[in-house]
Design brief:
The complex is a heterodimer of chains A (383) and B (237).
Chain A: H1 3-11, H2 15-47, E1 53-58, E2 66-67, H3 69-74, E3 80-88, E4 91-92, E5 102-105, H4 107-113, E6 117-118, H5 121-129, E7 133-137, H6 138-144, E8 151-156, E9 167-178, E10 188-191, H7 192-198, E11 205-206, E12 208-213, H8 219-229, E13 237-241, H9 242-251, H10 256-285, H11 287-296, H12 300-336, H13 347-374, H14 377-381
Parallel strand pairs in A: 5-10, 7-9
Antiparallel strand pairs in A: 1-12, 1-13, 2-11, 3-5, 3-12, 4-8, 6-9, 7-10, 8-9
Chain B: E1 12-25, E2 28-41, E3 45-49, H1 56-63, E4 71-76, E5 79-80, H2 86-96, E6 97-100, H3 112-117, H4 127-140, H5 156-168, E7 174-178, H6 186-203, E8 206-210, H7 214-217, E9 222-227, E10 230-236
Parallel strand pairs in B: 3-8, 3-9, 6-7, 7-8
Antiparallel strand pairs in B: 1-2, 1-4, 4-5, 9-10
Helix pairs in contact in B: 4-5, 5-6
The chains are: A alpha+beta (383), B alpha/beta (237).
């Protein structure tokens, strides 16, 4: 028998109380795990944005088109390493709810500007050579049950074909992964030429231009050069770093970060009150026993650590279980709700959670531990 | 036991010299002891009797180092203990004193063996040696077969025997007993007192027992009476 055994026996002596306290802690950390992974997934779009990538959009707003001719006028600007243009297609598979982030792209330059997209070389060549070829993200392929070699009809809620109808046929030639596990692979890309020739309107216009600079330190200079060039034209541009663009895009939904912070704070505040009260009660009930231990010769400091150990053990047991379940939940959510970015309980979330477990254990245990530390044997035994 | 002496001798295990003990209750200062002197010889089985509020338990607490005198000196086996720090006293208690309480004060979530093991956690003994000591202590109180039982699964007498085993397991020089039979019926009380008597006679343990019960005091080698913080008579059994 050691101190850890005593700690364990003390916390397990009232099974119902322990179960309820663990359940409350478990719920708080499960909420924390799921919400934080959601926030992390949203932030990943911003975090994974390349520092040396800019986005050129129509100054009115990013839904307005730009002339395709702009691409060639941007390429020679000093500090520009490469460009690629992308146009939102508004694609969905079979049912409108099966929508996907689908773009008509300049296929030859896409992979140079977005080098996070990882494709087997053979598939890459096949996609580049087939004008009806589709480059599908791993997650999108998984969502729709697609595989290389499939011919799939994809509808657009924006564009009709000159030949009639809104359904476009594609050959799945390549499936890409992200260079980082957090990279969103729900995107789908196809050749702009096929798109531009077949659509009924909007020829020679594009959605936005992605620009890679030779050095992120030149971003400001390149931004100024691009926007100055198109100033006072019918299609004025607004060029922003990709990070800022993605951040602004996410913030359109609302301040998700703030909402998540409030939910998590509320969960932790409630748990703090519940566990703190439970610990205080447990120690108050054991005043006599603590006095006896001190009488036998246990030093106050050792008892202080044992009481703190109890709250830490509860926090880590409940928190660990909550995080484990959150991990399963996020995997399930990612698999069943394809519209959401990949939710992952990664190392930073685990480390943060461990920090919170430690903090929760210390905060809820410190007052009972100090009470035990200061407990006067004579007073306690005479109660 | 001798009163009025401040000399420590090899025979004395405990010695209290000019001990004062005062409490403050609101604005009122209550004096429990005023210049109390006493000594307890090694191997003595001393019963302290007296009415409620006479200072019996306070005296026992001071002897056990769980309470400190306001003034005066407390010596144990040639060393002064009233000046020890809280941690110093805890260490001293663990090494020298075994406590037996009226209401047993066992840990309800631990088995008898685990309860007996508690004082050994304050020693450097290894697992095997601890087990040997626990077995020996439980054997001595006749409860080896109940080692795995929790306090609620035992009678009051059995619980007090576990408490005795806990008090002696680390082989302390002295046992301090606060009304050890106060919660037991006569027959069980006699069993416990006989056990204490054996520990005194056969194992040489010095025992100080606070009791209200004259029958219990008969098991002691000496009995003293406290009233309002003073020894009113002394005698031996």
């Amino acid at each position: 028998m050691g101190d850890l055994y005593l700690i364990f026996k003390n916390i397990t002596r009232k099974k119902l109380r322990l179960t309820l306290t663990l359940f409350a802690t478990f719920i708080a950390f499960m909420i924390y795990g799921v919400m934080t992974s959601f926030q992390s997934a949203l932030d990943a779009g911003v975090e994974l944005s390349a520092d040396d990538r800019l986005v050129v959009v129509n100054k009115i707003n990013f839904t307005q088109p730009l002339p395709i001719a702009y691409v060639n006028r941007i390429k020679p600007i000093e500090g520009v390493a490469g460009t690629s243009h992308l146009s939102w297609f508004g694609g969905y598979y079979q049912e409108p709810q099966n929508f996907m982030p689908m773009f008509a792209v300049e296929q030859d330059t896409l992979l140079e500007v977005y080098n996070e997209i990882v494709i087997p070389e053979e598939q890459k060549q096949a996609w580049l050579q087939n004008r009806q070829g589709l480059l599908v993200g791993e997650k999108a392929a998984q969502n729709f049950g697609w595989k290389v070699g499939d011919r799939v009809p994809v509808s657009s809620n924006i564009y009709s074909r000159k030949s009639g109808g809104q359904t476009w046929d594609f050959d799945i030639e390549a499936i890409y992964k992200g260079s980082d596990p957090k990279f969103d692979t729900s995107g789908v890309y196809f050749h702009f030429k096929y798109f531009d020739e077949a659509r009924t309107f909007g020829q020679n216009t594009i959605g936005f231009i992605a620009v890679r600079t030779t050095d992120s330190k030149l971003n400001e200079q390149v931004i100024a050069a691009i926007d100055d060039q198109f100033a006072n034209s019918p299609f004025e541009t607004e060029t922003v770093p990709e990070k800022a663009f993605n951040k602004a895009f996410i913030e359109q939904i609302g301040n998700i970060g703030l909402i998540i912070t409030f939910v998590v704070l509320a969960a932790f505040f409630i748990i703090l009150v519940i566990v703190g009260n439970s610990m205080a009660l447990a120690i108050r009930e054991r005043t006599n026993e603590i006095a006896v231990m001190k009488t036998l010769g246990f030093k106050s400091g050792r008892i202080f650590i044992m009481v703190l150990g109890e709250s830490l053990l509860i926090s880590f047991m409940g928190g660990g279980l909550g995080l484990l379940i959150a991990s399963g939940l996020t995997a399930g959510i990612s698999e069943n709700i394809p519209q959401l970015p990949p939710l992952i309980i990664d190392q930073p979330i685990v480390l943060e959670s461990i920090g919170f477990m430690l903090l929760l254990g210390l905060v809820t245990g410190i007052i009972p531990a100090i009470s035990a530390l200061r407990l006067n044997i004579v007073t306690a035994l005479s109660r | 036991m001798t009163e009025g002496t401040t000399n420590t001798t090899d025979e004395n295990l405990f010695q209290l010299t000019n001990v004062n003990k005062r409490f403050t209750k609101g604005r009122e200062s209550i004096t429990i002891f005023d210049d109390l002197n006493m000594s307890i010889k090694k191997g003595e089985f001393l019963a302290i009797m007296g009415p409620s509020g006479s200072g019996k338990t306070t005296l026992l607490n001071m002897l056990g180092g769980v309470d400190q005198p306001t003034n005066g000196e407390v010596w144990f086996d040639g060393a002064r203990i009233d000046k020890l720090s809280e941690n110093g006293l805890a260490k001293w208690r663990a090494a020298n004193i075994g406590f037996i309480f009226q209401f047993y004060n066992l840990m309800p979530m631990l088995s008898a063996a685990r309860n007996v093991e508690l004082p050994l956690l304050l020693t450097n003994l290894g697992k095997k040696r601890r087990k040997q000591s626990i077995d020996a202590a439980l054997e001595l109180v006749g409860l080896k077969d109940r080692a795995g039982h929790k306090p609620k699964e035992m009678s009051g007498g059995q619980q007090q025997r576990v408490a005795v085993a806990r008090a002696i397991v680390s082989d302390p020089k002295m046992l301090l007993c606060d009304e050890p039979t106060g919660d037991l019926d006569r027959a069980t009380a006699d069993e416990i007192l006989t056990m204490l008597q054996e520990l005194n006679r056969e194992y040489g343990k010095t025992i100080v027992m606070v009791t209200h019960d004259p029958e219990a005091a008969k098991y002691a080698t000496k009995t003293v009476h406290l009233d309002k913080g003073e020894f009113v008579e002394k005698g031996s059994v």
